[in-house]
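# nightly structure sweep
# worker-07 picked up a monomer target from the shared queue
# config: single-sequence mode, recycle default, output format = structure tokens
# input follows
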Amino acid sequence: MKKELKIESYVDNLTMVLSFIRDYLKTIDCPTKIQTQIAISVEEIFVNIASYAYYPNSGIVKILIESIRNNSTLEITFIDSGRPFNPLENKDPDISIEAEERPIGGLGILMTKKAMDEVAYDFKEGKNILVLRKIIIK
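# output follows
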């Protein structure tokens, strides 16, 4: 089962995005721990798109969610037409350094990479395509 949400890239729309994701996860009986990991990752990705992809304007973000591989894996895809940006190219922040001394940025993407089983990026036909995959163990 695949669901799609097209939404304006405003941070204020995060609540609707998370509701869309949560509603889907409930329909597939996704475990609570995995729901939390997915919600944190979705929040990070959507807020980054809303904050940077179309700055200083906004644009549409398409979010696709589906369970694949006989419902054993969840796939969430974010598609936007904003500035090309591959968050996976950035070096992970050094978390051994005190927070006050560490440069700002990158921590949310690091958390997403750790929470998801796979994070992939592509830029195709003028669109950023970021895919999150999570194995669902019930």
